[in-house]
Structure formats: C-alpha cells, structure tokens
Specification:
Elements (H helix, E strand, L loop, with lengths): L2 E5 L4 H12 L3 E6 L18 E4 L5 H11 L3 E4 L8 H4 L1 H22 L4 E7 L22 H20 L3 E6 L2 E2 L8 H13 L6 E3 L5 E2 L2 E2 H11 L7 E4 L5 E2 H11 L8 E3 L17 H7 L7 H25 L1
Parallel strand pairs: 1-2, 1-4, 2-3, 4-5, 5-6, 6-11, 7-10, 8-13
Antiparallel strand pairs: 9-12
Helix pairs in contact: 1-7, 2-4, 4-5, 6-8, 6-10, 8-10
Bound molecules: NADPH dihydro-nicotinamide-adenine-dinucleotide phosphate and guanosine-5'-diphosphate-rhamnose.
The site of guanosine-5'-diphosphate-rhamnose (GDR) has 22 residues, from α6.
Catalytic activity: GDP-alpha-D-mannose = GDP-4-dehydro-alpha-D-rhamnose + H2O
Cofactor: NADP(+)
Enzyme class: lyase
C-alpha cells in the first residue's frame, strides 16, 4: 500500500484527489491547519477513510514532524492562499504561504524523506499577460497578481529542488478547474450559486467584475487524475493541464442563467469593487504534452461542468430552505 500526504486537503482539489487515491488503495494523510472554523465540508464524507495531521505551510518544524510521522511515498502540495483577488489585499501572507510555503514543504521532504515524489500545484496565473496563445510549458511567465508572482516562485523552486537534489519533483501548470466544491468566492461558483438563489426567489441581483476576461475552465475531478499521473512516470517533469477551450465570463453567465431559463442581463450589475487592479485577459492552454506523455484525458465539457454546478447548488439550497422551514 502506498502512502500519500496531501496539503490543502480541505480545499476543492484536495478532496477530489483524496477520493482518487483512496480508490487506488492508498493510505491518505491530509495536512490540516488549526483554524477557528473546523467544518471541512469537502471531506466530511471521507473523514473516516483519511487521517488528518496538524501542520501549517508557514511552520517548517510542523512539516518536518508530519513527514517524519507519515513517511509518504508521494506528497501533493496543494495548499495555498489561492484566491487571486485576496492576494492584493494580503500580498505578504500570500507570498509567505504560496511561495515560501513551497520551500518549507520541499525542505521537509528533502530532510526527512528525499525519495518521496513531490507534486507542486502550479497555475496558469503564472502566464498572466498574454505573451503567446495557446499557453504551453515553454511559454514565458508574466504574472499579473501577487498570487501569480508567488506561484512563479513555487514553480521554480520545485524545478530547482529537482535539479539540485535529484528529487522526483513535478509541477503541474493547471488552468482553472471548477466543481460543486469550488469556494463561493471564485467566479464559476459565485455565478452558479447566485443562479440557483435567483431561480428559487432568494436573490434578485448579482454584482460582478470584469465580464470580458477569458478562462480555460475544466472539471476538478478530471484534473486530479493528471496530478496522480505526473507522479507515476519514470522521470519527473512539468505539464500544462487544460481543456484547450476558452470562454469569457459573459459566456459563463449566459450558460448558467440560460440553464434555468433566465437571461443574465436582467440580473447582473457590474460593480467596480470586483474589478482587479491588473487582469489576466486570456487563458487558453495547450495540453498536448500531457495527453501524449501521460495519456491524460478530459471527460467533462464546459457546458456539462456549469450544468453540474447549477444543479448541485439548486439541490443544496432547496434542502437548506426545507430544513429552515421545518425548524
Ligand atoms: P482551495 O482554495 O480550495 O484550497 C486551498 C487549501 O490550502 C485549503 O485546504 C486550505 O486550508 C489550505 N491552506 C491555505 N493556507 C495554508 C497554510 N498556511 N498551511 C496549510 N494549508 C493551507 O484551492 P484549490 O483546491 O482550488 O486549489 C489547490 C491548489 O491548486 C492551490 O495551490 C491553488 O493555488 C492551485 N491551483 C488551483 C487551480 C484551480 O483552478 N482550482 C488552478 C491552478 C492552481 P484551510 O481549510 O485550513 O483554509
Ligand atoms: P482566477 O479565478 O482569478 O482565474 O484564479 P476567479 O474565478 O476568481 O476569476 C476568474 C475571472 O473572472 C473574473 N471575474 C470575477 N471573479 C470573481 N472571483 N468574482 C467576480 O465577481 C468576478 N467578475 C469577473 C476575474 O476578474 C477573473 O478574470 C483561479 C484560482 O483558482 C487560482 O488559485 C488558480 O491558480 C487560477 O484559477 C488558475
């Protein structure tokens, strides 16, 4: 039985990855922070199958202790301050967690179990300003937010540990991926949650930022497969994971509102509060290397993804309303 350690297990990707590794027969450990609100909605359903260990990416000592205890064969470093908008409000903390946190995790692995395979959650936000389209592994980085800058650091330190210490360290450059477990602050979930609330008569307006930004949106369940595949190869390498399709935020609104028979223009208001100081205008990934070398495949289309998210939000909100009416 292989043992995996997942940082960021309470987040969207951590929960899907934990499910995948459990299916494959892994013993799964997840790093958890001591926080004031320990609900952990995304992993409640697998709480008995995984083991949670306390630690924080900001605290090297805690990570060393965790790696000593877990003795992982594979480490998936998914933890980050991952919301781009917040990275302007908390640029230093974002750098500490999303950049230096990667070095902390790599150091813990190097010092305690250097033969463990390491996955770093790199991001298409590293491409930032359009230099080349579609973006691929060789496209130069030009990050446009403190988050993007921190991810560039995390990416290169991972490459550097691979080259300096001969560690099996990979960096997955993942484009946006979404699911019903996506945080409510991210644009897809903000929209699908609002569509469900508007349809059920609980809300009548949705305030948004830049509707012209374009993203390459895939399904998180498909993307965690790629993370696992990257750690099963003979040689460590870096891969772009994307759908190869791009859609404007406006199209996301059309599809999500359209799915419940509504016109987004009747509800959406552009609010400067949600417009970012610098924007990434266009993301479109070329994942041909991952398809060819990893045999990775995409299963869920953009339309299916948005439909799945609207349906899940409708279901959850209907249940919440029913529970409130009963109590
Ligand atoms: P989430 O925001 O859903 O999850 C982030 C996770 O990081 C949470 O489990 C959070 O734990 C944890 N975390 C935050 N700070 C710390 C810390 N100091 N120490 C330990 N854990 C911490 O992110 P996603 O699941 O969407 O993304 C996973 C990773 O992939 C992130 O690194 C993200 O930047 C990256 N990425 C995501 C993409 C996407 O489209 N989803 C695309 C490309 C990259 P807690 O519950 O305690 O807050
Ligand atoms: P992103 O995702 O910044 O690409 O980072 P997000 O869903 O937050 O924004 C996508 C695009 O939508 C525009 N937008 C809005 N965004 C939000 N959140 N709220 C709004 O009201 C709104 N209106 C318009 C944004 O300006 C942006 O252009 C995500 C995160 O998961 C990162 O961690 C990850 O690395 C990248 O995807 C790839």
């Amino acid at each position: 039985m292989k043992t995996a350690l997942i940082t960021g297990i309470t987040g969207q990707d951590g929960s899907y990855l934990a499910e995948l590794l459990l299916e494959k027969g892994y013993k799964v450990y997840g790093l958890r922070r001591r926080t004031s609100e320990p609900i952990m909605t995304n992993i409640q359903h697998i709480a008995n199958d995984i083991e949670l260990v306390y630690g924080d990416l900001l605290d090297l000592g805690s990570l060393i202790e965790v790696v000593r205890k877990v003795q992982p064969d594979e480490v998936y470093n998914l933890a980050a301050q991952s919301f781009v908008a917040t990275s302007w409000e908390q640029p230093v903390l974002t750098g500490q967690i999303t950049a230096i946190g990667v070095t902390n995790m790599l150091e813990a692995v190097r010092l305690v179990k250097s033969d463990a395979r390491f996955y770093q959650a790199s991001s298409s936000e590293m491409f930032g300003k359009v230099v080349e389209t579609p973006q691929r592994e060789t496209t130069p980085f030009y990050p446009r937010s403190p988050y993007g800058v921190a991810k560039v650091y995390g990416h290169w330190i991972t490459v550097n540990y691979r080259e300096s210490y001969d560690m099996y360290a990979c960096s997955g450059i993942l484009f946006n991926h979404e699911s019903p477990r996506r945080g409510l602050e991210f644009v897809t979930r903000k929209v699908t949650n609002a569509v469900a609330r508007i349809k059920l008569g609980l809300q009548n307006e949705l305030r948004m930022g830049n509707l012209d930004a374009k993203r390459d949106w895939g399904f998180a369940g498909d993307y965690v497969q790629a993370m696992w595949l990257m750690l099963q190869q003979e040689q460590p390498d870096d891969y772009v994971i994307s759908t190869g399709e791009t859609h404007a935020v406006r199209e996301l609104l059309e599809v999500a509102f359209g799915y419940v028979g509504l016109n987004y223009e009747d509800y959406v208001v552009v609010d400067p509060k949600f417009v970012r100081p610098a924007e990434v205008d266009l993301l479109l990934g070329d994942c041909s290397k991952a398809k060819e070398k990893l045999g990775w495949e995409l299963k869920v289309s953009f339309e299916q993804l948005i439909q799945m998210m609207v349906e899940e939000d409708l279901k959850r909100i209907r249940q919440e309303v029913a529970t409130m009416q009963l109590s």
